[in-house]
Structure formats: structure tokens, C-alpha cells
Amino acid sequence: MTWVVWIIVGLVVVALFATTIALGQEVENLKDQLKTWVEWAPKHREEVLADAAAQMKKVEKELRKDAIARSQLVVRGKIAEQLAPFMPGFDFNPRDCRFLGSPLDYVCFEGLSDGDVTDVVFVEIKTGKSRLSVREYQVQKAIEEGLVSYEVIRLE
Asked: What is this structure's pTM?
């Protein structure tokens, strides 16, 4: 039975020795790679920096292009808000509407130009895929819940 133990111990020692040799070779490979990098990096520093700068300029150009496109959409929306009363689909008499701009675009007093106001309507103009802002949504909710009043303020 002792000879079996000695064979197992011998096999374990051989396996550990082989693993140690493999790890040593791996360490040497990593040392070689590091040495290559250390030698390569200083020689190519300017090239790497130039590549990084070129990539940054490319990304910056794309970001600027996107920002300009978004800005144009906002400007178009603002123009559409101003011209809305004169465009198809605006169901109110332009003479009955007053532009506010924020947080609502218009307050329309139906019948005002005829001398008989029959309804007051708050109007928000949206173009494309734009959605209500948080403030616009809050105003919409307050109006729909009837949280609207009328006050006369006398200044003396």
C-alpha cells in the first residue's frame, strides 16, 4: 500500500512541477509583452495622441451637428407656434387668440372678435414628435381639474 501512496505523491509532484514550468513560461511571455510595450509606447506616443485627437474632433463634429439639428427643430417649433393661428388645423379665429409662449402658447377667447365670448380655451402648439414639458403637463392638469380662477387687481 505504501508504494501506491508514493506513486500518487510522485504524480502530484510531477503535475506541480509541470504547472510551475507553464506558469514560468507565461510570466516570461508577459514580461516580453510588457518590454515590447515599454519600448513601443514612447516611440509612438505622438501617433497615439494624434489618433486620439482626430477621434475627439470627429466625435465633437458629430455632437455639434446633432446640436445644430436639435436647435433647428426648436426654432422651427417656435416659428410654428407664432404662425399656428394662420395655418390649417388651427380651429380658432386668430383675432380671438392671444399668444403667451410659456407655459402655454395661446389663450383663445372664442367669440371675442364678435363681442360675445362663449368659451376660453388654453392652447399648446406641438410639432413633430415633441411632447409636453413637465411644466406644460402641470398646467394642463391644473386646467383639466378646474383649478382656474379670475381675479381683478386694482393698482393705485
From this structure: 0.56
